Amino acid sequence: MLRRLLCLFVVLVFALQSFPAYAGTSLSFQTGQFSYDQVDLALGSRAPIRLLRHYQSPSTTDNTKVPNGPFGKNTHLGLWSLTAQLTSGHVRIFLPTGEETNFNLYSGSTYSNAEADDSLRGTVTLSGTKITLQLENGTSLIFNHTSTSGAQQLTQITDRFGVSINLTYTGNNLTKVENSFGQGINLSYGNTSYPAQITQASLYRNGATLSGPYLVKYTYDSSGRLQYFDNAVHNQPVNTLDSSNKITTRTANGRTIYGWNSTSNQLSTITTPRGIVQLTNTWTNNKVSKQTLPGTSTSTATDDIVSLYDYYGTGDSQNTKVTDAYNIYHYYYDAKGYLTSESEEYFNTSTSYNFDQNTGLLMSLTNARGYSTSFEYNQPYSIDYHLSKITDSNPAITTSFDFSGPYGQLKSVSDPNHNTTTFAHSYNISSTVTGLLSQISDALPSYQNFTNYNSYAQLLNSTDGVGRSTSYSYKPTSALGSQDLNEVVGPDGIHRKLDYDVLSRVKQTYRTNSSGSDTTDITNY
């Protein structure tokens, strides 16, 4: 079961206008387990690629070990870190969080989920050493590179339309991730003390490393823990205006600094390139017991945001008291680790929860006023669970859902007044590329028709209920594009256009009339 994490804050760090890097932290109120995620590099296109860096402190309740990873101990690359292995009649897929999902043989060389509460669900097939996990939406994860441990590493992610992302290895180390359009990320390993840890990552197009700020670096301490992350603008020249409004050039600081407990692998501080200590963790018994965030003033600590965490109970039946500047909250969990209730002291209110003990699905909740909401699910169409009904007690109303469309898509939703909106998925590009949305209709009646797609399953035309048409066009690979949306023409005849760089990131947006003679609303990025 994937742990339910409550997010405390999200930081958006800009490295040039077109190069955002996203970071966020989470803390499990049940286990005291801390996680940190950051996207260090990204490119767009029909097959976008994101270099995700994840750190996670070890669980203190279920003994799940996060393996030593490409950015130090207890780190991984998200989906790219999945591995699979055939062992004694079943297939095990190892999650980068340290957990695993088992698939049991049920027909021929096909395997299905062994447990009802598996977080990763699909159908597994074997072909020689190749292990393929197909998800309900038609996406395939292919594992076909044998590591030194004998497990198969992820080598390809392909959607049902044939667009893929390929992963290349040298030994056990992932060295390249590339999409169908020749865009990708190179990963380098230059730390002799820790040869499995990434020291540099760079973007490229058609095999050529790009000039400019498209490279990030990682530096580790003597224990192999990440000490510095240098983003793409670190040490790059940047023009700024001085107090006299004169242009001056300075060297940008793009370095994030990570502080650790001296005797453990517990992340204690994150300091931004501006020198602001963005987060401070205090650890007690291997759990986060206190977190400090900067207030509105970054130069003093008088208005810092402080949260205290007090854990009590045993095993998964862990309860937690959270104290912040405004209130005191209590969270209670059962023996399987499911949240049973939460309360707050200021208004003396509580909410209770009921989770199915086999599937882990939320079945009902009761709010502070005693009103309940129940949830029903079905599984007749595929291996995934789907929400089928939400019922409120006060007033007594029901909303129903039908996910029987191909690939688990929503087929209809009926509101409490019995008005139904339906979704038809009957547009097929070929005999193998099927199930594209063709129409949305509601009870008015009103229709939105989707009348044409290209071979990449991208919409070309749509028409509303009164016959007004909108068309879409995309920049092809022959023009150094990657099937990026570059023009939308609405019923008003105005052409809305987008220009991209070679990594499919928007450089400019603007509008023109039908002849192209009048350009307005230009925005550069």
UniProtKB/TrEMBL annotation:
Keyword Signal: yes
Domain of life: Bacteria
Keywords per UniProt: Signal
Signal peptide segment: 1-23
Keyword Signal among UniProt keywords: yes
Protein name (database record): YD repeat-containing protein
